[in-house]
């Protein structure tokens, strides 16, 4: 349900010409009480969606029931959703595993788990930063 609301909000933002705006530009536009509420609602919906997906991934990782195709699909679709509205620009900081990563020389499976976990942790950090602005 939240995903449908997000899509509706994105379409509304498209009509306002804000889809490719930078976060600072968005925040400047939504300075009124009404606008700021709209902005806060949009990002709260993004955050709730991301949180649910993160929980599902953590459950799969904890249960050792991992479908990498599904995880990567979810991960990159979520990132694409954020990027499509210009709200969060994720540079994929862990596409090459973190310098201090203990799994750097491990098998593909362990590396993939680590990369997915890092993508979500970084994405969550971006979302948390946005929420602090509200």
User: How many DSSP E strands?
Assistant: 0
Mean pLDDT: 53
**CATH architecture level-2 label:** Up-down Bundle
What is the CATH class designation? Mainly Alpha
Our count of domains comes out at 1
What can be said about the biggest beta sheet?
none
Keywords:
mainly alpha; 5 helices; elongated
Task: Describe the overall structure.
With 134 residues, the protein is mostly helical. It has a single domain, classed as Four Helix Bundle (Hemerythrin (Met), subunit A) (Up-down Bundle). Helix content is 70%, strand content 0%. It has five helices and no strands. Helix 1 (2-15) packs across helix 3. The longest helix has 30 residues, at 33-62.
Task: Map the helices and strands.
Elements: H1 2-15, H2 23-29, H3 33-62, H4 68-84, H5 108-133
Please sum up the structure shown.
Keywords: Cytokinin signaling pathway, Two-component regulatory system. This protein is mainly α. The chain has a single domain, classed as Four Helix Bundle (Hemerythrin (Met), subunit A) (Up-down Bundle), CATH 1.20.120.
């Amino acid at each position: 349900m939240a995903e449908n609301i997000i899509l509706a909000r994105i379409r509304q933002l498209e009509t306002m010409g804000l889809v490719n705006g930078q976060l600072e530009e968005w925040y400047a536009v939504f300075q009124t009480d009404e606008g700021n509420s709209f902005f806060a609602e949009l990002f709260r919906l993004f955050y709730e969606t991301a949180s649910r997906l993160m929980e599902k991934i953590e459950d799969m990782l904890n249960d050792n029931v991992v479908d990498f195709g599904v995880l990567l699909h979810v991960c990159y679709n979520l990132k694409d959703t954020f990027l499509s509205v210009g709200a969060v620009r994720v540079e994929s900081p862990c596409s090459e595993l973190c310098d201090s990563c203990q799994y750097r020389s491990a098998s593909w499976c362990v590396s993939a788990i680590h990369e997915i976990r890092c993508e979500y942790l970084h994405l969550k950090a971006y979302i948390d930063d946005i929420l602090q602005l509200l």
